[in-house]
């Protein structure tokens, strides 16, 4: 049988890695797919730039439309990134009857509903394993491996750049900007690295995970998004003294009234495996009602780790070339006409535990004032840590760990604490998740 011809859009980090992996493992890939897979066409912004890969035998162009419109191309692989041009090209490929593989989580989180509807109308597949947690086959695991479960919640470290920065800062005391520059050199970061450090990339990925876990449409616009830029070494140290690690965590949880969908820095007990996921590695913990907790771990970014997922999707696409379109794995795991309308909850209705750090006057009655405010809001305290004042300082750092409560109640408590005369500055609030099976 003739090999399947692939048209690649973008020959950067992931594009280069994909060419290399497909070439190096061609023989095994053919044995798995039942047909050879060759990259016949590729679009790049410049044709004479040094590349990660050898482009011999690939028809190169600077016009991505040429690839998308070429009748000789069976599958389009979109690896240019970004929202608008990628959307245009993917929809055009679908309209031309081509299957699509993409690593673009921004595209899927924002335009996935439209794209999957178009793909279903055309009877083509849009595969996106590389879009979440790079090389970890998390889409496949949730969509297929856990299909017998009611998924209760999932939590993930799903931005490699952010986790790499936090790890290097914690372990080696390195500066934020210096580690970010290194992540960019390694090809981990997004074209606009604020997507990594402000939590937007993780929110894109969490949006996708929540859809396939709970059977809801993609709703990136409702995700609560907070990045890592405000985490300080002070809080990392205090958290460690209390037995916790601070990680940038994506949390999607099904509760009675809807779905919590949020990414933010989070304290996690250090005994949890996921608290020990460091560097560019990602991990996703999924709680199913039948299987219990399952944990998926691997490289979340990088040329070949991501290419591993792109190529796996290509193999899947080659296999579906011969299956009945109505019997394929649905794009969002659940049949398109059976998605649920559970709302995404506003952050005020989310329930979580908290780490609070405040600067309080070193005088009697202060602790009582704070515990009264928390008590008035029905918030229970789990631990208190009082540190010595730094030399020449009249205020002492006070750290509280609380039990789970509504974010709205915590907002009220923080406003009241900040209004106390004995408190200086703002209260630092970091959410805390125990991540045990039942909470
Ligand atoms: N780098 C990583 O570790 C991972 C990246 N991704 C995603 O993969 C996609 C690609 O990312 P990278 O390879 O890292 O980016 P990159 O910036 O290294 O590569 C993108 C390539 O697309 C090319 N391009 C942009 N506009 C073009 C146009 N109009 N015509 C032709 N070529 C064009 C650029 O010149 C560049 O070479 C993004 O959606 C990214 O979010 C997903 C998982 C991991
Ligand atoms: N910029 C992303 C790349 C992979 O999705 C990350 O750092 O995780
Ligand atoms: Na993946």
Automatic annotation (TrEMBL):
Pathway entry: Amino-acid biosynthesis; L-threonine biosynthesis; L-threonine from L-aspartate: step 3/5; Amino-acid biosynthesis; L-methionine biosynthesis via de novo pathway; L-homoserine from L-aspartate: step 3/3
Family: Belongs to the homoserine dehydrogenase family.
EC number: 1.1.1.3
UniProt cross-references to Pfam families, sorted A to Z: ACT, Homoserine_dh, NAD_binding_3
Active site residues according to the UniProt entry: 205
A biological process term (GO) from this entry: methionine biosynthetic process
Keyword ATP-binding in record: no
Co-factor requirement: a metal cation
Name this protein carries in UniProt: Homoserine dehydrogenase
Protein residues bound to NADP(+): 9-16
Binding site for NADPH: 105
UniProt feature coiled coil, ranges: none
MF terms in GO: homoserine dehydrogenase activity; metal ion binding; NADP binding
ACT domain segment(s): 355-431
Keywords assigned by UniProt, alphabetized: Amino-acid biosynthesis, Metal-binding, Methionine biosynthesis, NAD, NADP, Oxidoreductase, Threonine biosynthesis
Residues that coordinate or bind L-homoserine: 190
Recorded catalytic activity of this chain's protein: L-homoserine + NAD(+) = L-aspartate 4-semialdehyde + NADH + H(+)
